[in-house]
Amino acid sequence: MPPEPTRTRREPIFNLPPVIALSVAVLVAIHALRMLQSDAADFELILEWAVIPARWSAAYGGASLDEVLRALRAIAPEEALAPLQALAQYVLADGEGRPWTAITYAFLHGSWAHVLINSIWLAAFGTPIARRCGGPRLLILAGASAVGGALLYAYVNPLQILPMIGASAAVSGMMAAASWFMFAPGHWLPEGRVSEPHERQRESLSRIVRNRQVLIFLGVWFAANYVFAFVQPFGATDASIAWEAHIGGFLVGLALFPLLDPLPVHRGRKSA
């Protein structure tokens, strides 16, 4: 009797940690549900949950409606001035700051392309962090990076009346966190295999700034932010890119990750 053939184990196409799969599903589901609303209802939702820097400046910084209107007259094209002034009066009418929008804006996106791109980057950079640190620490990192992005955006654009949305600041924080260990040297594990990137000890800051791979990675990231924020090639975006939020999220992720990392910093020179 011939031996029974050995069955090969099938790996899933998308082997994502549960926290990443759930996060992507939530972002996609929220955008899909918004598509079922009327334009007017969706606009109200955006105004309620998005970051609007002028609202924060009026509530917490003492900025007046007149200051916001003067800023609009200085920069807005004539054909857009009237609707923007009406928007400013509507948004600032109740005087509320809505501080929770520093988090909630990250769950909203401007288009399917926007939410799908952020989901792809979330899966790419969130997965090694989730495997390394676990779901709760990943969510802390993402939330703090989102807040950092919102704060820097509002600081640079204090009288901006247009809403800012998207998970890009949170994703930028994950990218920064991953740069601590993604390019660290591998080492042999007791089970006889070379460590995966998420299993490697993070580099020290002095090693990071001397690591050519990290510098190239960061250089490409900053260049991409510049291109899409100021050049917008081939009509690739249908709205302006909040590069300030990306930078804010990145800096928070870079600073916070060593405090969340369960592995010690790499100090030796051994590599595989």
Describe it for me?
It is a single chain. The protein is mainly alpha-helical and 272 residues long. It has a single domain (18-260), classed as Rhomboid-like fold, CATH 1.20.1540.10. It has helices at 18-35, 39-49, 53-60, 65-75, 78-91, 101-104, 112-133, 135-156, 168-178, 205-208, 212-231, 243-260. α4 packs antiparallel against α5 (78-91), α7 (112-133) packs parallel to α9 (168-178) and α9 (168-178) crosses α12 (243-260). It is elongated. The relative contact order is 0.14. Residues 1-13 and 232-239 have low confidence and may be disordered. Its main location: membrane. It holds the Pfam family Rhomboid.
Please provide the ordered H/E string of secondary-structure elements.
Answer: HHHHHHHHHHHH
SSE-based structural type: mainly alpha
- Taking Cα atoms only, what radius of gyration do you get, to the nearest Å? 22 Å
Q: Stretches where pLDDT falls below 50 for ≥5 residues?
A: 1-13, 232-239
- The total number of structural domains is 1
CATH architecture: Up-down Bundle
What is the name of the CATH superfamily? Rhomboid-like
Major sheet summary line: none
Q: How many runs of DSSP E, i.e. beta strands?
A: 0
Mean pLDDT: 84
How large is the count of helical segments? 12
Beta-strand share of residues? under 5%
